[in-house]
Amino acid sequence: MTHESAHGPGFPASRPRRLRRDDATRRLVRENGLSVNDLIQPVFVIEGHDHSEPVPSMPGVERLTLDRLQAEAAELERLGVPAIALFPVTPAAAKSNDAAEAWNPEGLAQRAVRAIKARTPEIAVITDVALDPFTVHGQDGLLDANGYVANDITLEALVRQALSHAAAGADIVAPSDMMDGRVGAIRRALEADGHPETRILAYAAKYASAFYGPFRDAVGSAGNLGGGDKRTYQMDPGNGAEALREVGLDLAEGADMVMIKPGMPYLDIIRRVRERFDVPTFAYQVSGEYAMLNAAFDNGWLSREACVMESLLGFKRAGADAILTYFARDVAGWLAEH
Ligand code: PBG
Fold first, then answer.
1. Is residue 119, in this structure, part of any structural domain at all?
2. Backbone angles phi, psi at 207, to 5 degrees
């Protein structure tokens, strides 16, 4: 007597396991997948020649001099990764109250853009528009007399910074500062300055997250920030609807793509944004997420490739079009092997 007949004909009415019984069927019905086209590799850049420095809180991540950055960009291009996001490490002597190094045409970020474009013009270069690597206090904006991050004077600085990136050849400028009105100000300036093709990837919903710690170590802004935080401009982690208002504003001001950041704790926001706006929506798997996963891998508690792939597939399922992740290069390699 078969299992089925013991329970009467047609029992159970539905057998979802039929679609899971072999690999071919599982592949046929799979709803989401990860491709190399979905990946953006962030890179930390330092002054010097033929040198790299490990970032202790981000095992496997190194800060690179410009020549090594060029080699890294060439390798990423070979692997098919479409884009690279640059984060310069500013020497302490170049930091100031007015963050003027941010728009120095000979600054590290500007030279890094030119170095990549000279060797590998096809890979898209994304630059970070925010003042925190350049201010002595480590805040993303300029301070008023009371020590408050002042919105409108910061906009002028951000516009200068974004224009200098575009002039250096950046394909995509990515304001990550969370000042009000910055996307509109940057868009107007790009149009007026002869850069109508420069894309804006707005960090539209960026939360005041504790998961940025290792990044601040990597770019050397943690010491500058001291005990300070960014809660007067980055979003409160308790809020969801506010992210939709932020995205709506950035799109109305001229953003081409929007970013949600951090990633794994904010998958609900990715889903809501994707459903409401139907525009290119990117996720940032931030430094703390990378550090957290690596700590478990290095202890032998989790399996590296399987968990990285599962975490990125989660972003795709939530609705992300692309993912900025410190694992991008490794993932591109794994995808090429399979
Ligand atoms: C700075 C900036 C930060 C990150 C990207 N751009 C840190 C911050 O806002 O303090 C964090 C990225 C990461 O943690 O990987 N505007």
1. yes
2. -90, 155
Supply the pLDDT for residue 103.
98
Mean pLDDT of the chain: 96
Question: pLDDT band at 4, cuts 50/70/90?
Answer: low
Look at residue 1 in the predicted model and tell me its pLDDT. Answer: 45
* Annotation says 261 is catalytic: yes
On whether residue 17 sits in a domain, the answer given is no
Whole-number Å distance between alpha carbons of 113 and 14: 56
Q: Which one of 95, 230, 261, 316 is the catalytic residue?
A: 261
| Any domain includes 247 | yes
Q: Does the residue 19 lie in any domain? A: no
CATH number at residue 147: 3.20.20.70
When divided into structural domains, the chain yields a total of 1
Nearest CA to ligand 1 atom 11: 212
- Predicted TM-score (pTM) of the model is 0.96
Report the residue among 132, 173, 203 best suited for mutation to probe ligand 1: largest number of ligand atoms under 8 A from its CB: 132
Tokens at 221, concatenated: 């802004």
Confidence at residue 223, expressed as pLDDT on a 0 to 100 scale:
82
Span 14-40, pLDDT tens digits: 999 999 999 999 999 999 999 999 999
Assess whether pLDDT exceeds 90 at residue 2: no
Q: Are strands 322-325 and 172-175 parallel, antiparallel or unpaired?
A: unpaired
Residue in the structure block whose two tokens are 């990515």:
174
Q: How far is the CA of 23 from the centre of ligand 1 (A)?
A: 40
Task: Write the pLDDT tens digit of every residue in 218-275.
Answer: 988 888 898 889 999 999 999 999 999 999 999 999 999 999 999 999 999 999 999 9
219 is in which domain, residue-wise? Answer: 33-337
